[in-house]
Amino acid sequence: MGTPLQRWKLCLCGCLAFALLAAMPWPTQASSDAGPPASGLSLSRLDADPVPRDVVSGSLDHRFQAGPGGVIRESAPGVSWWRLVSATAVPATAQPHIVLDRPGAARVQAWLPGQPMPVADGPGNGAPAGFPQRALAVPLPDGLQAGQAVYLRVRAMAPLAVPVDIEPLVQLHQRELVHVAWRAAVLCGFVLLALLALGFWVGIGERGYGYLLLALLAQAAFFATSGGEIRLVPGLATVLGEDPRGVVLASLAATLATLGFLTHYLELRGRHPALFRLVAGCAAVLLVLAMAALVGALRWVVPIAEIAGLVAAGALLVACVRGCIARERPAGFVLLAWLPALAVLVAGGAAGLGLWVAPEWLEHARSAALVLAGAVIMIGLTDALQKVRRDRDRVSRLATFDTLTGALSRPAMEERLAAAVTDAHRSGTPLSVVFFDVDRFKRINDDHGHRVGDSFLRFIALRTRNRLRTYDLMGRWGGDEMIVMLPDTRLNEALGVAENLRSAVNCRPLSIDDRLFDATLSLGVAELAAGETVEHLVERADSALYSSKTAGRDRVTGHDPRVTGSHPRFVATPD
């Protein structure tokens, strides 16, 4: 599972990764919390939609049934009427407002005492200029006398629980300032993360960053649509800011984008094909629901979308559990992420059911968790890329270096030789090679086994490599054959290097398994001739090596390119 630091980074990544799904904006989420009971207000509900004139006249007051204190609660989509009565007089000097916290996509019309027409129709309408979409604020310019009724016609797009209270303008401004600060920070976080994801996607080309970018943009769009900031974008104010379908469509888009990202992040298609098909089916249902929402069929779109989203979340949860059992790192991190996000959702749900009074910061915590989740997911993707890069470097090293001797592998040596020969011809600098093998190595393997033979080669490679210059390269050509490339080296100097290699091996026996073994090398040396190819250069060095063998082994032979004919010139033998 990696080092403790790596495990911590990845655990943190996964712990908040699932916040993108667990805090997913289901259509009911934006209005699921209930605030504290309103002071001095009594609420009653009429489960019908009669003509507004009959309701406002008070002729239907006897049909209203007392509701929960301080909360407008609807358990299903539909239209209902609510009657608000203040037990005490509310003076107009404080510029009071009826405040409906977090109404979501609900459309609300308010009839004040003595006014035949509604003063609000939807979140934010009728509020003081410049107020955001945290609440529907209905001004009471004349205040409210004790016992006077305010009638609200509520058209709910989904189950909701909306706290209601009467607040003076000063208090309303203070709450709005805090609200605006939180939302500005969250939007800035979304923008920054989206820019980073875009940069990584363009710079690295990893698709995961593209999926993350799409999820972040979709989440930001839902966030701005549900909060009203989308109205600041020219051309989108009417499409997404005023139309009740805007919030639902933005929610569905964010859900689809998040499902797509998590499906890719968990590699669901390859690791859990059955669960992938289930999630893909839920995504198809959500896509159909988005098309239905376009034509205004919101009444049945919202509950079906919620069910489809929960099924998809359950499938991903099962995939995470299975992945943890199979020791899949992303699955473990995503599963851990479920816990903090789930705690926030459970707290909000409990408040929506009236089981406790949720603090106002709970709404901001959900939004902040989304941004933090995006940041940690980006760290997780970067960590995954680092792991891929480490694995790739490891494979590349295995392909480049011989695991037994530590020398370059033959393909890597051939590649470097070809480049060196091309460079030597172009620049006119000399280049020499030394070709050697171990004398009577087959007898070592036959008499003492391949394990001793492998140790033999390791010791010889170590002794010879220590005698080379920093810019020389040594590679294993095959079996016990080694080749050394000597850049910028003439034949006479190369013969001296080869003699150093020979003396480094035969100067003292090799100690293997508490036994001593004598070892010697036969070496051939050749210098690159004008216009010569790599193959011909190596062939001449091999010919010189063969001459060393036939002359009695444990010696160096050089092939002088200035000598005509096929016979190499003998250069040196030991005493």
Describe, in plain words, how this protein is organized in 3D.
Helix content is 52%, strand content 16%. With 575 residues, the chain is an alpha+beta fold. It folds into 3 domains: 233 residues, no CATH class; 141 residues, Sandwich (Immunoglobulin-like); 163 residues, Reverse transcriptase/Diguanylate cyclase domain (Alpha-Beta Plaits, 2-Layer Sandwich). It has a 6-stranded mixed β-sheet with strand order 11-12-10-15-16-17, sandwiched between helices. The two termini are 58 Å apart. The N terminus is likely disordered.
Largest sheet: 6 strands, mixed
Number of domains: 3
Estimated radius of gyration: 39 Å
Question: What is the tally of helical segments?
Answer: 17
Termini separation comes to: 58 Å
Question: What's the β-strand tally?
Answer: 17
- Sheet/helix structural class: alpha+beta
Q: Which shape, going by the Cα principal axes?
A: rod-shaped
Mean pLDDT: 80
Summarize the amount of helix as a percent range: 40-55%
Assembly type: single chain
Which strands sit side by side, in order, in the main sheet? 11-12-10-15-16-17
> What portion of residues belong to β-strands?
15-25%
Low-confidence segments: 1-38, 123-132, 564-568
